[in-house]
Design brief:
The structure is a homodimer. Chain A is of the alpha+beta class. Chain A contains 8 helices and 5 strands. The first copy, chain A, has helices spanning 3-9, 25-35, 55-64, 69-73, 90-99, 108-120, 123-147, 160-167, and strands at residues 47-52, 76-83, 151-155, 173-182, 203-205. In chain A, strands 1-2-4-3 form a 4-stranded antiparallel β-sheet, with helices on both faces. In chain A, helix 2 (25-35) packs across helix 7 (123-147). At the A-B interface, helix 1, helix 2, strand 1, helix 5 and helix 7 of A face helix 1, helix 2, strand 1, helix 5 and helix 7 of B.
Chain lengths: 210, 210
């Protein structure tokens, strides 16, 4: 299935068949590994994933996300998190870049310092970096799942605080989106995707008209 | 090319062949339209795109982005923006949802109110929504371009203020990432992608260990 086809076939599933699929831990990890081929700034790969498959845990997640019943019925949920302290991996990036010949050993300190400066610039900068990279991977997860015939729903209405508490997510990781995986309900019909806004209303050329 | 293949083939191109491709306005718009099949919360589609192809405009963008020379050489740049006032489209969403049978007419006001509440909750909430959705589309743009044999580079080091001023981007739209499109340099070699962190270091099951 090519990318365009996967994009067209992806649906935000509104109801799952309760535990309709048995998704192995290894299968989900492989899906995540593939999705992580996303780019990231300074190659920091500032993303983490919490996989929820256990029934009781899904119940907790359901409670944390304003009781959206499809969470209970999904086969698995992946809590995609962004790392707001991605610069702590700056040392690894620098080593990789030297190995790839992108920078010289003598530039190592300068590069590491500038990576740290980017993160230390502001709270907003840290937030943007954490969300942007995690979102790339979440999008890939949805496309890869679609390609495998698995239905997905991105859930963004949840209490950050409740999820942190229930799943022991440290402050440094920001839960960006929950990607639910499963089999679409066999009894309730799946509505089509919402129509898209015509591109002519979204695209500007050379400058935005105010 | 399937999704996994596109993910593997995508490279962050480090140098473009100067104006190596002639990318038509219509071609880029079609790419954007396909990428916009991404999901968005409440189906608000809170993204906008500024396409830069003109040589002088690329020069301006280069200045706004700390003189990264590959910006000048790219065939086109798409400034992907997130809409921090996505709730202004709530009315359209509600109409679409009624037409799709997702909600009843009598729920219209309640749904519209809750969409507005989500955006009005906090500055952080608005930021997250704007970045997450724009990032989904940016990822799709890179995959679709890869599928078409076009090289891409996501640029995130830029002065938000300088870009806003130079390209007349109103406060409501946040520039999230610049996606450069072009032909890889035929003279300077393209390094491989950085190795990825093993998934075992990124994935947690059922809860995160502190």
């Amino acid at each position: 299935m090519d990318v365009n086809e996967a994009l067209k076939r992806r649906r935000t599933t509104r109801a799952f068949e309760p535990d309709g699929l048995m998704l192995q831990r290894e299968f989900i990890e492989e899906l995540i590994a593939k999705a992580c081929m996303a780019p990231s700034e300074f190659d920091l790969q500032p993303w983490r994933f919490l996989v929820v498959r256990d029934r009781e845990r899904k119940e907790m997640l359901y409670q944390c996300a304003f009781r959206q019943s499809l969470i209970r019925d999904a086969s698995a949920a992946i809590i995609v998190c962004g790392d707001t302290r991605g610069h702590e991996a700056a040392n690894r990036t620098v080593k990789d870049w030297i190995a790839l010949g992108l920078i010289d050993q003598k530039d190592a300190l300068r590069v590491e310092t500038s990576i740290k400066a980017a993160y230390e610039a502001s709270e907003k900068a840290r937030l943007i970096m954490a969300i942007r990279n995690a979102s790339y991977v979440a999008m890939n997860l949805m496309l890869l799942a679609t390609e495998q015939g698995i239905a997905t729903t991105p859930i963004v209405s949840f209490s950050e605080e409740a999820i942190r508490r229930a799943f022991k997510i440290p402050e440094r990781y920001l839960p960006v989106v929950l990607v639910l995986l499963g089999l679409p309900s066999t009894t309730s019909p799946q509505p089509p995707e919402c129509p898209r806004v015509p591109v002519s209303q979204l695209v500007f050329h050379e400058e935005m008209e105010p």
